Amino acid sequence: MQDRRRSVRDKVLFGGVAEVSERGSAMNCVVRNFSDSGACVEIAASAKLPEQVTLKIARKGNNAYLAQLIWRQANKVGLAFLGMITDSPKSDLDARLRRSEKKKRELQRRINQLLGEG
Predict the structure, then answer these.
(1) How far apart are CA 91 and CA 28, in angstroms?
(2) Burial 59-68 (b: 16+ CB within 10 A, else e)
(3) Domain 10-86 class?
(4) Element (H or E) spanning 46, and its range?
(5) Does pLDDT of 1 surpass 50?
(6) How far is the CA of 90 from the CAs of 21, 75, 80, 93, in angstroms?
(7) Is the Cβ–Cβ distance between 70 and 79 less than 8 Å?
(8) Closest to 54 in 3D by CA, of 71, 74, 34, 68
(9) Each residue of 82-113: pLDDT tens digit?
């Protein structure tokens, strides 16, 4: 098979998730090679993929790649990246919740001490 890639891909072994937005479904996959313009991904042989998917790779940070299906052979697919989707900055809600829970535990400990239970 002739290699028609625009750039050389690095061999990798990354866990990923292929999301199909219009159906709201996602499937785990293994990224076997990767470049700025595309990737080769292993998925279940029975998985049905549309022409476009969103590929999320945890090792690549909080980014996702809008990708187009170029080829498929058994359980491997070739994807060409159409663009990168970056997550919006995370809110500080998680940090505030953790601080609130810590403060609650400290106050409960102090109440127990004052009541002679601790």
Answers:
(1) 26
(2) ebeeebbebe
(3) mainly beta
(4) none
(5) no
(6) 21, 34, 28, 8
(7) yes
(8) 68
(9) 998 876 555 677 778 888 888 999 999 999 99
Tell me the C-alpha to C-alpha distance, in Å, between residue 79 and each of 32, 37, 107.
11, 9, 54
pLDDT in tens, 36-90: 899 999 999 888 888 999 999 888 876 789 999 999 999 999 999 999 887 655 5
* For the chain, domain boundaries: 10-86, 91-118
Q: Which two tokens stand for residue 63?
A: 């980014």
| Contact predicate 43/7, CB 8 Å | no
The structure tokens 């999320």 sit at 56
Distances (CA, A) of 52 to 69, 80, 96, 114: 6, 9, 37, 62
Q: Are strands 52-57 and 63-73 parallel, antiparallel or unpaired?
A: antiparallel
Cα distances from 2 to residues 5, 13, 46, in angstroms, run 9, 23, 26
